[in-house]
Every structure is written in structure tokens, then in C-alpha cells.
Amino acid sequence: MSEGEHDKGHGEQDDVRAALDWLAAAYPLPILFCGFSFGAATGLRAVCEDQRVVGLIGLGTPVGVEGRVYTYQFLKDCMRPKLFVSGSRDQYGPPASLRKVAELAPEPKEVVIVEGGDHFFEGHLAEMQSAIQAWVGKYFKTGRQAEAS
User: Fold this and answer.
1) Would you give the DSSP letter of residue 106?
2) What is this structure's pTM?
3) Strands 64-65 and 68-69, how do they pair?
4) Measured between alpha carbons, how far is 88 from 86 in angstroms, rounded to an integer?
């Protein structure tokens, strides 16, 4: 029921930055960003250079949707840990296309493909959540950022 207007990702990036500012002021802790679909595409771009963000997660990261092409060249400068999780049947981010996006990014990075999952991980939410938990456990410890391996 938002009264806002779609801004092709530009204003939405400002929204993400405003949310980061609020989080940082209200909870002065390291931030893990997680975005889904269009939220991943715009959010990853918005947070990649923000030093308050210690890790980035893209769920169902779109590569091509109904004539729209998403570009991720900005990832080449993103040094923090990154996780991309997608379904093997994701119609907006096929695994091969998502792997090409991830290739743009420096380490540390991981791509997890949930077998049988679609764009919304329908029937496969537990596998998606397990991938996130394993990644967080690998790179982050309670109260501090772990060293990236």
C-alpha cells in the first residue's frame, strides 16, 4: 500500500541508504545486508561501499526480467563477504547467469543453488535459510566480524 513510485532503482537505493542510517543510529552494530529479488539488485548496489555493512546477501538476485537487464559491475570493488542464494529453477536469475554475476566479485564470495527452488524458494525455504545460517556462521561470530577465510 505504498504511495511511493518506482524509480528504476535510483530512489530505492536512497531508501536503502536511509534505512542504513536509521539502523546505524538506533543500533550501532555491524550490519549484514540481505535483499530479495529487486531488493537484492538495488540494495547490493547501495550498500557495497558502505563500511557499516560487513556482509552482503542476495536472495533470488535477478539477472534479466521482462526486458530489464540488471548489471553488477559495481561488485568488482566490493571486498566484504558476499553470499548469493538462488533456486535451480529461478526464472529471473538462472544459476549459470548468477554464477557469471558472482564472477565479477572478488573473494570472499559464495553462490548457493537450492535444488528445485524457484525464484521465491517455494517449498525450499529451509534450504535457503540453512545456506544463510552456514554462511553467517563461517564469516561472523557473535559480537565481532570473523576473519574472512
Assistant:
1) P
2) 0.87
3) antiparallel
4) 7
